[in-house]
Amino acid sequence: MTNLLKLLLTILYQMKILTTTIIRDEFKNAKDKRLALVNIPKGLVESLNNAGFTIEIILNSRPSDIAKVLGIDDFVAQIIYHETKYYYQMNN
Predict the structure, then answer these.
(1) Please, which of 3, 13, 28, 54 could form a disulfide with 32 given CB 3.0 to 4.6 Å?
(2) Phi, psi (5° rounding) for residue 60?
(3) What is the C-alpha to C-alpha distance for residues 35 and 27, in angstroms, rounded to an integer?
(4) How many angstroms separate the CA atoms of 89 and 28, rounded?
């Protein structure tokens, strides 16, 4: 009986890992289409989407954090933050 229980627990654990991986990958591949409406270059929009950023994540981040994740200059990250904030204020 204990071996059967161990096997069942192992299977359940593997299912949890698989489910978590699927959810993470779906989230990672999700793109915030509103970013295309922010007044920033298309290449930055693509980089933000590829890194998993959304409008809300940008607004809840510091420009220096955005710069580190994207590997860009702090000044460019400040522009991204301020343009996103402006877009959000004008559309919500």
Answers:
(1) 54
(2) -95, 10
(3) 16
(4) 26
Report the C-alpha gap between 51 and 4 in whole angstroms.
42
pLDDT in tens, 25-80: 555 567 899 999 999 999 999 999 988 899 999 999 999 999 999 999 999 999 99
Q: How confident is the model at residue 92 (pLDDT cuts 50, 70, 90)?
A: confident
Query: Dihedral, CA atoms, 40, 46, 52, 57, nearest 10 degrees?
Result: 10
Does the predicted TM-score (pTM) go above 0.90?
Answer: no
CB 85 within 8 A of CB 59: yes
Joined together, the tokens standing for residue 42 give 């298309």
